[in-house]
Amino acid sequence: MRQFHCYSILCLFLVFLSCNQYEDQKPSLTPEGIASSEDPYARINFEKSKLINPLTGEIPNNMRARELSFVNNLQRRSSKTNNVNWDSRGPYNVGGRTRALALDIDDENIILAGGVTGGMWRSDNGGVSFVKTTTPDQFQSVTCVAQDRRPGKSNIWYYGTGEYYGVISAASFSNQASGNGIFKSTDGGQSWQMLQSTVSNTPTTLYENGDFDFVWNIVTDHTDTMNDAVYAAVINGVYRSLDGGQSWQAVLGLDTNSNNISRFSNVIITSEGIFYAALNAAGAAGGIWRSADGLNWTEITPANFPNSYRRTVMAAVPSDENQVYFLSETPNSGALDHNLWHYTYLSGDGSDTGGVWENRTANLPNYKCEVFYDFTFGSYNSQSSYDMCIAVQPGNPDHVFIGGTDVFRSTDGFTSQNNHRWIGGYQCDTATPSNYIYPDHHPDIHGFLFLPSDSSILFTASDGGVHKTLNCLAPQVDWVSLNNGYVTSQFYTVAIEDGEVDNDILVGGMQDNGTFFTNSSDPGQQWKHVFYGDGAYAAIEEGRNNYYLSWQTGKTFKFKIDDQGNEIGKTRIDPVGASDHLFINPFILDPGDQNRMYLAAGRYVWRNNDLDSIPITGNETSPISDYWEIISESITPFGTRISSLIVPPTDNQTLFYGTTSGRIYRMDSILSVNRTRTIVTPPT
User: Which of left, alpha, beta for 334 (phi over 0: left; psi -120 to 50: alpha)?
Assistant: First the structure.
């Protein structure tokens, strides 16, 4: 009976995958989310591919509402779900992609953090533990969070939704992981209510100018004692509300008479209430702006700033708010396709001679590290501004921190190449090249935060959740994970042991976090990291003699792992000559003979008939040719790829496979030379 239920669930999963894969998948992304020059969008295109209608290439309208309606009616639709109980398995210790991070001004032990697919979380003990504060029916795509810092108002918080980079705009608009407005809390971030004035209810359709489907940043005006002033940077401009978000006024950009759109925007406020904003060059209001009142804005873009610029992040110097740093992605311009500028306000509205600009672009970090890959990952890289942030340490205007794939620190404001250091994200370990993650940290940095009472303590928000260091100026910075119950990791796949579905051992592949292992049903138990990369498909052989794990674009490995999750050995086993893999590429073990594997690669299915004979050699870099063959009958039409596989547990002579076009095929007599193939799906 166990096999029947697992097979039924997998068949449903097969239909879901094959109906939701996208054909235009590009082939290459490097481990732990480093984007290659050939394809910086592999992961995000893959995420889109799982959501679109293959006939239209778009996400259907109102999908979020339809999801919720389906879930609310599940028990009425099927009696089989009435007695199903779900328990969290974690992982307790692995955080996911985090863009929103803040400390409560009244109690710095209170941390608010938001995962881009995991909702809002709150810790009242400095990160020793977290509690989720959003409900399942609220939008989980958190991108920013802000507190009302005025005396008597600090119980009020806001968070924005809609991650523009969740699935990038490489194809059409609907591949964005968009949101649906701003949420507000009046109890210190312990519960949230949607601001109806920001609701568009169009999170999967082409946005209208000025809606809140993508909220880049929120700031509150702590200097305005008369109004509940809130500012939101959205696509194409900046809004202001003077009544705590009940109504909004466009104050910068948001020109309804122009077809030119700034998709990247940002707004910050200094300690004395001066505003700076940045919109990318494509829009009518593109440029860098300054305002003393949040209503009247003056463009201060330096005269020799690049003509083409996308996202800009900003940081005012806490000890001297007349100084502001600007870090911009400037494709095909500047050092490493980025520009770094320092601005000093002098007088008036800050334009022309009222401000002094200094270009410090030439001093952006450019370390060399090519010991594990055929490209360097030690230079500053924001992956097309996907991970991009900047901060200045309170008390010292020259201590500047910039984040991209890595964390870099300068002690002279990047006025030279001599005084900066690589302190987080990745590292360059020439002795053990595959040890490329900075100890106890994570790449892809989205935000910085200093502890108010001790600015040597620095927090980061990244694709790996929340971390902190107790001494951000140390020669070798030590990091501590705060992902304690911050359950925001993003699983691509999960595997249990064939034939032992009640065993507590699980392995799962995660976005940008590799593959993790657990042997406990306790949701508070820490999972163990067993493999790097973007964790992809996995399988546990019955008896656990071998594990099979993979990372992006089909790189597949045979592992020996003990029951405590310790690696005994591994070797790479994917076939020489296989190509055109999906970003998260499927493989399966034959349930009737676990010495046999089927692996998808583009338009073909490959089969290995003798996994046991592959020795564990420690090979990490090269595919193999031993025991592999192409099942020639599996070829699919040009433009489609195989996206899912299953061999029924009761009949290992039959293989089903689904494609990116939504078609499902059945191949019979797969172990003989007289194989036949049938299209299962109807022509319509």
Answer: left
Distance CA 382, CA 82 (A): 47
Q: Give residue 417's pLDDT.
A: 92
Degrees, nearest 5: CA angle 236-219-481? 105
- Quote the pLDDT of residue 222: 98
Residue 337's nearest CA partner among 302, 303, 361, 315 is: 361
DSSP string, 7-25: HHHHHHHHHHHHTS--S--
Sort 622 into a burial class: Cβ within 10 Å, 0-12 / 13-18 / 19+: exposed
* Tokens 């031993």 -> residue: 626
Eight-state DSSP code of residue 294: S
List of residues 6+ apart from 485 with CB closer than 8 A:
92, 129, 130, 131, 524
Q: Using alpha carbons, select from 578, 597, 581, 595 the residue that is nearest to residue 647.
A: 597
pTM here is: 0.86
For the chain, how big is the Rg over CA atoms in Å?
Answer: 26
Q: Which residues pair with residue 159 across a beta bridge?
A: 145, 183
**What own/partner pairs with CB < 8 Å and gap ≥ 24 does 101-104 have?**
101/145, 101/447, 101/449, 101/459, 101/461, 101/466, 102/145, 102/146, 102/147, 102/157, 102/449, 103/449, 103/451, 103/452, 103/459, 104/147, 104/154, 104/188, 104/189
Phi, psi angle pair for 540, to nearest 5° = -115, 115
| Angle at CA of residue 162, ends 158 and 166, nearest 5° | 135
Nearest to 276 by CA among 268, 284, 265: 268
pLDDT of residue 63: 74
- Using CA atoms, how far residue 527 sits from 90, 517, 519, 568, 570, in Å, is 8, 5, 8, 17, 20
Q: Which residue has the tokens 């082939």?
A: 27
Please tell me the predicted confidence (pLDDT) of residue 635: 83
pLDDT at 373: 64
Asked whether the beta carbons of 407 and 387 are under 8 A apart, the reply is no
**pLDDT at res. 431:** 82
What is the rounded distance in angstroms from the CA atom of residue 170 to the CA atom of residue 161? 21
Of the candidates 86, 100, 85, 67, the residue with the CA atom closest to the CA atom of residue 486: 100
First vs last C-alpha separation in the chain: 34
**Read out DSSP for 50-93?**
TTS-TTTSSPPTTHHHHHHHHHHTHHHH-GGGTT--------TT
Q: What is the pLDDT of residue 357?
A: 98
Q: Which of 181, 175, 293, 170 is nearest to 234 (CA)?
A: 181
What pLDDT is recorded for position 415? 97
- pLDDT tens for 352-369 read 999 999 999 999 999 888
The reported pLDDT for the residue numbered 205 is: 55
The predicted pLDDT at position 380 comes to 95
* pLDDT at residue 97, rounded to an integer: 92
Are 3 and 649 a contacting pair, CB within 8 Å? yes
Q: What is the DSSP letter of 674?
A: -
The neighbouring-strand residues paired with 276 are: 268, 290
- Give the span between the Cα atoms of 164 and 177, in whole angstroms: 6
Question: Is there a contact between 138 and 183 (Cβ–Cβ < 8 Å)?
Answer: yes
What is the distance between the alpha carbons of residues 79 and 82, in angstroms, rounded to a whole number? 5
> Which residues of the chain, if any, have pLDDT below 70?
1-44, 47, 75-83, 166-177, 202-209, 371-375
Q: How far apart, in whole angstroms, are the C-alpha atoms of residue 149 and residue 219?
A: 10
Q: What is the pLDDT of residue 172?
A: 34
Task: Note whether 601 and 585 are within 8 A (CB).
Answer: yes
